Amino acid sequence: MKYYPKITKLAVGFALSLILLFSAYTAWCSTRPMPESPAENSAWLVYWDMPKDPNKLPSKKYDSISYFAAYFSDEDQLTLPDDFDSAVLLNNDIPRRYLTIVNDVVSHNKNSLKSITLVKRTLDGNMKKIIYADKIIALAQKNGFNGIDLDYEQIFKDKYTAEEYIHFIKILYDKAYAQNIKLRVILEPSVKFAAYNFPRGPQYVVMMYNLYGLHSGPGPKADFAFIEQTSNSMKALPGPVGAAFSAGGCLWGSNGEKRFISSDQAEMLAQKHQTNTKRDEKSGALFFSYKDESINYTVWFADKKTIAEWSKKAGEMGINAISLWRLGDDE
Fold it and tell me: Per the database record, which ranges form the GH18 domain (predicted)?
């Protein structure tokens, strides 16, 4: 029975080694540098507006551009649009190139946008979270991206799925950090930020738009009170944080028609129907009304001055990282 003490000593030594290793890992996690939140300008480029010529990308105007978007097949496989050409991004002097991942399912039979069930399936258990984190990073690296936008929407309507998603954010951030890849997490303004334990590390960008839109009657995509209220609620997020604003606007008809339009389209409508635009003091947005045949139309939209005023208001609230939705829509 002389081997018992040796086994005990080995077991104790092994346990101590694990404790030291865990302590070292914990210390590294708590002391590693966190991303700063400097003033920066970013914008999304959607695949249906992807230019063929890299010189047409306004890289000097933006610190980073996010390519929208990678989505899922009906077999839960991450995919990019067939005509995506990474050379357009790689041959440009954009400092940071983000790949935006959305929880959309695109199939030959039926598309499912902002799918909660997709998130439940792909993040079911730690192993799947790790697998999909690796897949996202591999897809980004393969196509020349050095940043990732995680833009999963509607999932905070389901608290269990939201908690699983937040756990996934931590896993993805740790893996992306090890590969020197930036991570931004895009959040809806309706999310109760204080109700969740969001991990430190990623930049959290909140969509400060759609205050009015297809879901409502006429009004601006954002106003100053909305920006202030959202900015205050964002104090519960672990920095760095950013705000996303949307160019263009929306048209409402008395016949029930509702559709998004660009500011160029809005100005053309105003000229065509010989009506003057007015600027709203509470939002900085422009608006006008006109009649076409028997239908009354109202239009609200944001121009460059509106975006500048919204950005200034966000800056007053301590948010200096601004993203624009989207290039090709009144950049």
Answer: 124-330
